[in-house]
Amino acid sequence: MDVSLVILFVAVLVGLYSAINIGANDVANSMATSVASGALTIKKALFVAAICNILGAVLVGTYVVNTIRKGLVDPLQFSDTPNLFMYGMLASVLGSALWVNIATYFKLPVSTTHSIIGGVLGFGLVSVGFAGIHWNVVLFVVLSWIFSPVFGGVISFSIFSIIKKFILSSPEPIEKTRKIGPFFSGSVGFILSLAIIFKGLKNYHLNIPPLEAFLISLLVGAAFFFAGHLLIRRYKEKDTDPYYQVEKMANPLQILSASFQAFSHGANDVANAIGPVAAIFAILHTHQVEMKVFVPFWILLMGGGGIAFGVYMWGYRVMETVGKKITAITPTRGFSAEFGTATTVLICSRLGMPVSTTHVAIGNIIGVGLARGISAINLGVLKKIFSAWVISLPAAGLFSVAFYRIFIFLFG
């Protein structure tokens, strides 16, 4: 059998294994708060997450794929030895996937982005040394890890503070919800539409100008506004606690924001599984290392499908840690955290920044909790989570180096 076919087959299997583990670990970032608040059952949450992740990967996934594939290690260092670059990419995916698999088993929400970047840097350092690494890109990525959770946390804190001040602290919370709620649903529709349209359909050669993209997104936002208005208006007041009723009225908003966040997860984190696979496919097709390649639709679909399968397989494990053990979650708090997370991840995805969805999500949940005081946060659980984050990059890097040596031994 042709060695190149064997390598491609192995790459596809490894890419699927990575995508499955990403889905299993990272589904908690989008759906844990919805399940914890009671807005969705686990089965419904897993179904919604699977569909939205596939759509995000297929529609917006290519931008971050390019950063992972060729942004960290200089491909030109392997011009005369393209096979070494191919083995390194394969080792990076496998090493990071193994680490995420271990973390998921222990119910720890780790950064799959940290893991794949650690894998790529690990193989790069042992193959071409410090000179072969694009350290400016590494710095850009590291800064995004700091910027993104802070930026998302500010958004989440601000949204929940608005909800708390103008709705939950109001003497007429139900009436205030009916007035303010549609603006939140409209904002979700606008941002999601803009993320998809504004150069998000590049693979399909639909380069819509910024002004037209903005106007179309305004129309979609308006449609979401009226849909939210109708949903909230249909809710009938009951003879119970009005604040409990407000939380029940917020369920549709939280489901919408959770779907929004799952979409952004597919857009950003599919690169962690298929970025290196795209590089391997290009090398096998052209027999050389190129700076720019087209990412085939089937690779994007494979990554999205693998994430969806991982959601169903093991998604419930980390979901419990994120949704129930950090801080108490209600639909209004969950919406605030999810909206902040999804907005931050999508903005960074459009900029080609492979941010950690996990870091952003946890940061936003902390932000929502801090809106009620430091006592609302379980610091013991956060200590375990932060420890796993610190370990992620070096652990994935060491696994990657080990697999890189094995591939060179096996394939030459």
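Next protein, fold it too.
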Amino acid sequence: MLKVGITGGIGSGKTTVCAIFATLGVPIYYADDRAKELMVSDEHLIQSIQGLLGEQAYNADNTLNRSFIAQQVFKDKNLLQQLNAIVHPAVFKDKQIWYETHHTKKYTLYETAILFESGSYKMLDKIITVFAPQEERIARTMKRDNLSREEVLSRMDKQIAEEEKMAKSDFIIYNDHSQPLIHQVLTIHQQLISL
């Protein structure tokens, strides 16, 4: 089974592209979603996060206080690195179990915004980057997450440049209206299943 990573900057359209791959029967591990699930279900992880960020990291109903966490880590790069150092090992372990359940598939997708930043790309066979122009990404993210332009730019600042992601990738999907997404996904899908 090929382990394929899919990434792209915030607001690039990874979710839309993954939805197309999913219709082709490709299993997709959504790292950010699983991390959020583990952060509220794994007792060791919960204690570690509270140790780092305090009790305010969780709401009274034991859900993540996402706005509080975002305010803390997006203004302090060191704190973000510490949080990632707590969460990434739990996600890695969870991902390994997930891979075992899909070992008969020709390939799987591992989706995360921080594929290169986390070092996860080193454990993958192929990389796909979804590219969209910065202004389009800013507008999408502002609308989707109800954030200010400054907040979006601050989050973008924590990710490596799009050009660097593209240079390190095996495939690039252009989500810039230059060519249909479905055609691009089908082309990559055919290449991956023929490997």
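About the second fold: The beta strands are 2-7, 28-30, 107-111, 126-131, 171-174.
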